[in-house]
User: Fold these one by one.
Assistant:
Number 1:
Amino acid sequence: MNMVYVASRFEFSRRRENLSWSHHATVAALEVADQEHWLDRAVAERMSVADLRVESRSWRRALEAKAGAEEPRAACASAQTLVCPGCGEVIPLAP
């Protein structure tokens, strides 16, 4: 069932040949734009599945923490932040 779910979330043209099925499964629950962001970043930074999980979970936790102050999708759109995997602190990156 998990394989069917992941496959349904990624059209063939959006799949990354150089990433594993587990990379795709890690971000399958995200919105399409967020999936693209994380898969692109995983390729560019040669992230392992474990690294991708830690980074994306920290990012989601930071978004949830901001949810009371702003709309989560608006925070997601900027995606120009660095999230500490240890403490979850969100650090904005300069343009």
Number 2:
Amino acid sequence: MACSEQFCDSCRRTRAAILVLVPVLLATAAILFIGMPVLQRRAAYRYSLGFADGYEILAKNLADGNGYRWRPDLAETMIREPGYPLLLAAAFKIAGCRIEPARFLNLLLAAGIAVMLMALARRMTGDPRAPVMAALLFLLHPGTLVAEARGGVEILFIFVGFVFMLALHWAVEKGGLWRYLLAGLAFGAVVQVRSTPIAFPVLLLLYTLFMAKGARERLRAVFRVTILLAGMGLVMVPWVVRNYSLVHEFVPVATLGGVGLQEGLYVCQNVSLGDDLYPVGQAAGRIRGKLAHELGMRFEGEEYFQTFYDAHDETAFNRLLFESSRNEYARNPGLLAGCVGKNIFNLWFLGKTWDITRINMLVQLPLLALVFYGLRIIRLRGNLRKIGILLIYVGSIAITHLLVVAEARYSIPLLAFLAIPAGVAVTSIWDEVRTHTRFV
């Protein structure tokens, strides 16, 4: 009888979730395919709602049979991780090289994220309403809608991140080294889409060693993280082998670390409250272009990414930018501390213009307040340990951006996971309001 009641309760929750989420997804589709084209025509001079960050350029060349490069006459590149360009190239093959296939793909991925988010929230909170509320907070967040419209990497990055989190929590709950291997394979897919959480295994190991009781548990934790790393490595092998064949160097992630560190340093030194980010980013790009000219490198792109005719120049240029920025921070530790402090603000609020930054503050501050309130409630309920691994994953991404480039759009993948404690906060506040109203 108890099992039957539990099954019926699960069916009711699933039906309620469908009734709530399907209209939201339909409204999202209307925004993406009807509202966004209108908004794009009005906002194009200030902000792009089309393709972003060059992923479509790589995807188009892949779809056209030109290889993984920015232009047929340029060298093959390593400047972007291959996950999203490969998926986007498949979409282009099926539906043409237009923004609409990318938006439709993002819509499908967002639906999958909502399902996985609810599954993860049920495991972590024990609150039957928080999962649906968390999914709604994710789907209706303006940053999510913009990310879906722009045809950028964020939605796929969130999707594979949730696949990994579910796989890892399954491994932690059930045990078994093969489950950790599967989680490692999922993490390898995450890193192949975007490498910003690359420090997660180290942070996970430190966390599990701290939480372990006794030498045997600590040894077991080390072994499990090693298995996870082995799974990640297996997924990365084709990318690493391909890169080695190009430049005869070990290149495990995209060759963008130096660019990110250089631009992050320049933004830190030249952007203050009230300033627009866009012209400062262009100036940082011009500095890189001037340096590449001085080095005698053949390249294209003066104010954004420098794309090269020789793959060796790409790796050498990235390494030079990384070393020069790192040395600048080493000479001035106070500068590093100040930039990290600024990036805490930038990661959640900074936009291309000051007007967008103010809008970001209006949107993000209430949501962050819900996140912190929800974490407090989860701690009081004794469930903080259940959400610990998720917080470490979010922290591993945040730490990377605090050291390089930080803008509000980079916080969208973090907020997708933090929607879980925010959902707990909303349901708790709703209960308090109902209780107060009942007794007034």
